[in-house]
Amino acid sequence: MTSLPRVLTVMGSGETAPTMVKVHRELVGRLGQTLAVLLDTPYGFQENAPELATRAVEYFRTSVNTTITPAGLGRISGADPVTLQHGLNLLTDANYVFAGPGSPTYALRQWRGTTIPDLLHTKIRTGGVVTFASAAALTLGSRTVPVYEIYKCGEEPYWLEGLNLLGDLGIPAVVIPHYNNAEGGHHDTRFCYLGERRLAALEEELDEHEYVLGVDEHTGLVIDFDAGFSRVVGNGVVTLRIRGASRTFATGETIPLALLQDPRDKSTAVVPTVPAPRTTNQAPDTHETAAASLRGVAQARKAEFDAALAARDSSAATRAVLDLEADIRQWLADTLTGTDGDFARDTLRGMILKLGEAASSGLADPHATVAPYVEAILEIRRVVRAEKRYDLSDVIRDALAGAKVEVRDTPAGVEWVLQVP
Fold this sequence. Notes:
The chain is of the alpha/beta class. The chain folds into 3 domains: 6-272, 3-Layer(aba) Sandwich (Rossmann fold), CATH 3.40.50.880; 294-361; 366-418, no CATH class. 42% of the residues lie in helices and 18% in strands. The radius of gyration is 30 Å and the shape is elongated. The N and C termini lie far apart (75 Å).
């Protein structure tokens, strides 16, 4: 029997977005027969919890080509014992455990006093792939940031005890996902909505050996315990921060496990990863270059659309509309699109309206369409003028003017301009 890999993946966000499809596929591909379970506790308090589970299941089915089963552990306190045990059995048998958005404090409160923490520790120690993102990622370290309580309720910054799955790997870190968040606009929402002031205050409470492991949005850190290294994936960077001093690692870089275990060790080398050359017959993976957000995708499609209209290319304009519609469907599973979904849909509606207006007026160059007819009429006018039939010449000119064609007699010859509304 082949032993399972011991892999812990930390995602800053985008866990069910196109940006992370390739990562999930690679992780699942290491398992052979996959038994994937969605640990749904972090968002179990939300009224739309069933919808979030359905979207995650559909994402794995259509994008990752894997069946994932919700554990049904959204609310453990007061749960039916049979339902609870069924979820625990699923978690025990799973070789791929995935958890994502919600509240870290709610999840930890629900897991307290259950076997779930021990089951997760067992996966890390004996074999399995654990992928925690967003809120779930906050629980991975020795301490956890109660984000909602601090950012939404105004409580003073404080730490809670975390699961410390990283401790099983000898990594003395606290995880901060959404590290490069910019939703605040003019106010600082970096570092999972904490901002610099509050993160600096929390850092002062860390023990001497502890540090901050920051993971940007739509970015992940795949930690392979057996191989002894980790790899940055996705669109952003991973940050090792010690008392305000940061060291960053871009996507594709390989970080030795020893450095994560002791980031103060400057002697540990970091290896940049060079992607393998693509063969001539190998099609590019569309997810490799996926934009960091649905808003970014929509803006790119809008630029393609505008360029197509300017070039009077109806096929390219239509393709941009259809591509954006497909992009929106791809991003539907992402639970953290925020206002990006509304922005993308508004952009799509605007593009459709412009395409409809173009259909009414036509995208073909009207000058090129009428040129043969105008030139023929002007040739008749030239003959008439040569015969000094200026009255007929004026009639022709006026008739063309009525058809929005302005005729200009210049020393260099006759010119005409089509007056397009």
